[in-house]
Amino acid sequence: MYGKAFAPEYQGELRTALGVNSSYEDVRAAADRSVETAAGPLERARAALALAEANRRLGRVREAGDAWRGSYRSARTAGHTGAMAWALWSGGTLARQGGSLRLARRLLGHAVTLAAESDDRLAHGYALAGLAETGRIQGDYAAVAALHEELLEQGRAHGEPRHMVWAMSGIAQMHRNTGDLAKALELFEESVRVATEADDARGRAWSLRGVADVLSVRGEPDRALALLSEAEGICRAMDLASALAYNHKMRANVLYREGRYEAARDTYASTLAEFRTLHEPRGVALCRLGLVKSRFRLGCGRRATLAELEVLEADFTRIGLRHAREMVVAFRAETTRGAMRSEHREAA
């Protein structure tokens, strides 16, 4: 059993003032005031943590970086290892969002160690979850699948729906990427149900995106687009800038799979601008891949397409996105096969 979702990253006086579904503009404003009025370094560390998370979700990368570092410094001054762990968790999550996956793993690893030393179970769980998600994004499924399952069991054991939603979504994404669509859909839909019952709007938005993705792959674009519209409304209400951009990228994916290449191209292009504003290299690279594929379907030459794919493959390798690199390799093979068939017909 589990209760309503809560946000353990809002601590001190902010714990009662803010909730899991608070608008991030509201969180930012409240946290900023708390930083200014903090009575001591521990209170300042906690307020700065909330400020870092609000700015990160709003896509304010520089401000988020300043805030988590300030949180860590204040926590160190206070001698509070648990607060130091939370700050490093925030910094590691920001690094992952910005495509610095090695830095993310290093910061999150330090967060795990400090959280264990402080016996802060929630900080330890969030840091482990961050490590697992970083590995999943990199495509290192063998290394993190067991950790996802462990975190899901911890969430169930302690009645923590946000952990359950996060873990189920991560496991579902791995099943989706390895071709088990039925299992992926089952887990994404269960994640939607848990998030809904726990009143976790953010978790519901991300889970709806996952359901839409699988439905689209299975040939149900209208249902997929309707779910994405519902999730978009949640993202806008909560000021979830990054989640909104990924929602728009998924809409472009759905349009592409349906063969609506002009609409897909335009949506990828507008979403690319969103990701650049948010300074999210991973989202930028994924949108660029979508643009290359859409333009090829609309008649872009094979030579230009292959040149762009070569650049993208290098970018995905640099960032450490194994699954995305595999998508580049697969599409390049598809374009090459098409050219070989064309040459064969001409020779015949």
Structural descriptors:
Serine Threonine Protein Phosphatase 5, Tetratricopeptide repeat; disordered C terminus
Outline:
About 85% of the residues lie in helices and about 0% in strands. By secondary structure, it is an all-alpha fold. It starts with 13 loop residues before the first helix and ends with a helix.
Residue-averaged pLDDT: 92
Q: Approximately how much beta-strand content do the residues carry?
A: under 5%
Figure out the total of helices.
Answer: 17
Query: How much is the radius of gyration in Å?
Result: 21 Å
Helix content: over 70%
Mind telling me the CATH superfamily name of the domain at 230-348? Tetratricopeptide repeat domain
Give the class-level CATH name of the domain at 230-348.
Answer: Mainly Alpha
Helix-strand topology string: HHHHHHHHHHHHHHHHH
**In terms of per-residue confidence, which ranges show pLDDT below 50 for 5 or more consecutive residues?**
340-348
CATH architecture of the domain at 230-348: Alpha Horseshoe
User: What is the total tally of β strands?
Assistant: 0
Using the coordinates shown, work out and report the CATH topology of the domain at 230-348. Answer: Serine Threonine Protein Phosphatase 5, Tetratricopeptide repeat
Largest sheet: none
Oligomeric form: single chain
Which helices and strands appear, and what pairs or packs with what?
Elements: H1 14-17, H2 24-37, H3 41-57, H4 61-78, H5 81-97, H6 101-118, H7 121-138, H8 141-158, H9 161-177, H10 181-197, H11 201-217, H12 221-238, H13 241-257, H14 261-278, H15 281-297, H16 302-319, H17 322-347
Helix pairs in contact: 2-3, 3-4, 3-5, 4-5, 5-6, 5-7, 6-7, 7-8, 7-9, 8-9, 9-10, 9-11, 10-11, 11-12, 11-13, 12-13, 13-14, 13-15, 14-15, 15-16, 16-17
